[in-house]
């Protein structure tokens, strides 16, 4: 599965940071900042969620064990750098990483759990469902939402996974720094 995750992260302009046991960490806007990293992370999460659900259904039919995952997204500043003396690795640290980890660990299997701050940044494009608060170390309680799908007006498919032309036009304007409209 991690090979597939690598392909999806690359497709959506995300950077794989590391795998830790059964966890896969990636980030957007690194190492080069971009204006679409929140949108990119949400699109990647929906794609991974869909593919894993399909794989689960096939394995259930074949009476085979299956792997379920939780996806967590949070947006914010991080410290990033190369660590190691003999074997180098690119890594990230900070509150944002800790909150993203909390979003994942507080999620439900097969669902994408996002922070309230992430929701505020991407709600123009995506449908979400409020699910309550979670305690985060040194941050108090943080609002959580399930990311459900692209809004119908931005989706080419009924499931809300594939962006349409309307989405692409606005996405390109944001990407190129030409969007003058505040997205609410």
Model description:
This protein is an alpha+beta fold. The chain has five helices and eight strands; from the N terminus they run αββαβββαβαββα. The chain has helices spanning 2-11, 37-61, 95-105, 116-122, 165-175; strands at 14-20, 23-28, 71-73, 79-83, 89-93, 112-115, 126-136, 140-150. A hairpin with a 2-residue loop joins β1 and β2 (23-28). α1 runs antiparallel to α2. The longest helix is centred in the N-terminal third of the chain and has 25 residues, at 37-61. The model has no long low-confidence stretch (mean pLDDT 91).
In short:
The protein has 184 residues and is an alpha+beta fold.
Stretches with pLDDT under 50, minimum 5 residues: none
**Which strand order do you get reading across the main beta sheet?**
3-6-8-7
Q: What share of residues are in beta strands?
A: 25-35%
Assign the structural class, choosing from mainly alpha, mainly beta, alpha/beta, alpha+beta, or little secondary structure: alpha+beta
Mean pLDDT: 91
User: Could you state the CATH homologous superfamily?
Assistant: Nucleotide cyclase, GGDEF domain
CATH architecture assignment name: 2-Layer Sandwich
The CATH topology turns out to be Alpha-Beta Plaits
Give the overall silhouette: globular
